[in-house]
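Hey,

Quick one before I head out. I ran the complex with magnesium ion overnight. Inputs first:
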Amino acid sequence: MNLRIGHGYDIHRTISGRPLVLGGVRFEADFGLDGHSDADCLTHALCDALLGAAALPDIGHFFPNTDPAYRNIDSQLLLQRVVAELAARGWRIVNLDASLIAERPKIYPRLADMKVALARSTGLEVSQIGLKATTNEGVDEIGRGLAIAAHAVALIEHV
Ligand code: MG
């Protein structure tokens, strides 16, 4: 088997006046994330893990934050594009795993919804997507609620 692993990381600052979208799911919160797109850091980390596994340039290369076409864009559309870029090169996703680091809101109750949204965007089964959430135990800017971050890994197979 021709397998490749990739890693992705992303962080966005919290900001008032924007919707909070994580893993393609809208959360009830009095803040959102700052960014050119919908700033869904979890989905961005997954995109970079997939692109990295295929040794392709990162998400900023494919979707520059200077391009008005991507302003406020739903990051699920970016993830779908990344999956298509890989498929065009003969890569199929074996599994994804990610960790979201957020002090608030409570993520755990929405993990299943996020897996469904990510499965829809990637064409995977929910059983191929690992997803965990943790707080940062009050440590540093993430712990003070000033940012939300995500780590992700992807395994892909050439078919
Ligand atoms: Mg990002």
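The beta strands are 3-15, 20-22, 25-27, 32-33, 91-101, 129-134, 147-158.

Talk tomorrow,
K.
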